[in-house]
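Box S2. Input/output pair 1.
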Amino acid sequence: MFQIRVSDELRTACPEFAGRAILADVENSEFCAELWQMIDAFTLQYRQQYTIDSIKDIPSIQATRQAYRRCGKDPSRYRPSGEALCRRILRGLPLYQIDTLVDLINVVSIRYGYSIGGFDADKIVGGELVLGIGRAGEPYVGIGRGELNIEGMPVYRDAVGGVGTPTSDHDRTKLTLQTTRLLTIINGYSGTEGLDEATEYMLQLLRHYAAACNESIISF
């Protein structure tokens, strides 16, 4: 069984943190028209419901920003991905289209405000992830971002090093069209409220759009 645990340093800084992870066999695709019909409709609804100012009051976004400050990072300079995605569509910009797995993870992130990691489980070394805090000079290559300064940022590490932060996942374990085993992690810095709902919604999308099967849920 895949293991995920929270380090003492992160638990001390963010005692409210709760996580949910889904491990599943999946079929990725370059583009799913049905999924994007849903995303487009959801985007219109979201823009009617929120503004860039009002999303700051969403508990999951607010708590993730607070977690950055507690760990030693400026959330306005290194925005958590959940907030960054919400701000993007509220600025009138389209959501990024990457591939089906990434696209559906992004829509769950926007709907619930969580920063959600998506990893190719077969690329994770050692069978365990530990959530800690980034150190000065710790090497980290963010997807599409190059070298990223993760000092003072929550970070998941496997046996080799960092694989995921709320700002960007690592290039080494990124999802591709060849991914057949997905690990996705929903980070609840605001606690457990809403986590089960977001997890169930993620499962629904994965089953419908990515033929997910053999799923297991990890609570930590």
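Box S3. Input/output pair 2.
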Amino acid sequence: MSKADSPIDVLLFAGPFEVRGTSAYTLRLAQHAINYGINTCVVCPDAAKVDPRIRSNLEMREYRNLNVPLLGQIVLRLVKQELLKQPPDLIHIQSRHVLPQGQWLARKIKRPFILTVNDYLQSDEKLRIDLRWCRGIITVSESVKKDLLARTSLPEELILVIPSGVHVPDHSQLLPVLSQDHQPVVGTAGPLEAIKGLPYFLGAASRVLAVNPNVQFLISGAGPEESNLRYLARDLEISENVTFVSNLYDFSISLEAMDIFCLSSLRQGLGTIMLEAMSLAKPVIATGVGGIYSVIRDGETGLVVPPSNSEALTNSILTLLEDPLKARAMGESARELVRQEFRVETMVERTVEQYKLALHVAS
């Protein structure tokens, strides 16, 4: 095998793994890149929330306290010393939250890097990119790219869009939507954070139950807002119809149990978990924010509602509950869209192209 045909070694530099779309993005890259001639090694401070069955097939190195101020600097120097023994060809920094450490490593071991930006900068946030070593910035949607260009002085040619990809199961593996043999389940999944707008989801649940008390609601995920959401469910007197599911390695079991998936986010870069629900032919109701419009065609592949609006979300849920045929057709259209435009293989292929381009430029 010639040097040109040799596998490319890529370091995937990540933060702590959580049950969320950004962590799933890293795992999918690590799992599939080998099929395209890429050897990956994941470096992170904590991989305890990675399914052991997945982790056993990946090269993952945990460096505890890597994300802790001050102490993390010492750990980072240890990472550098280890990498200098056998440097990767390229570093792929998995989020802007670990950019400072990732590009410090790139400088120290003299390797180019690529950065993925999954969501929007905070109002007072600055993105400082070392253009000497940066070979590209991947954003997950046109909306995130436009925000990045508006908020920074980065050259447009440095930024490209590669949407997150998900696995699309065979049709025979899908469960029927709104079947008469079970109570309808309306759910949501993701980190339980304020930006996800989950109080509006619970507000809609309360309104729906006033019309149809037979509906069950499912909230899958963990995060800082969990206790507040549980309290709100009790305050709304709907606890008996709301199930919280946390401490899972992924959302697959929860998504399979849902008949309708809701995304009530106030801001959203793309919505990887929403794509997973769509791949299962689940009808989706999502707020019209950020990258949602690059996925949801209102009335065709899902329903779009205004953010922070429980009443609109309620009406859309009731519309689908009252018309199972429409809900199923919408779910099938959503699945076909994901199959055509958001497959994990497409994401990995396009990312690998950027790896090769980055190394060509670097050489």
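Caption for Box S3: The radius of gyration is 21 Å. The CA atoms of residues 299 and 330 lie 8 Å apart.
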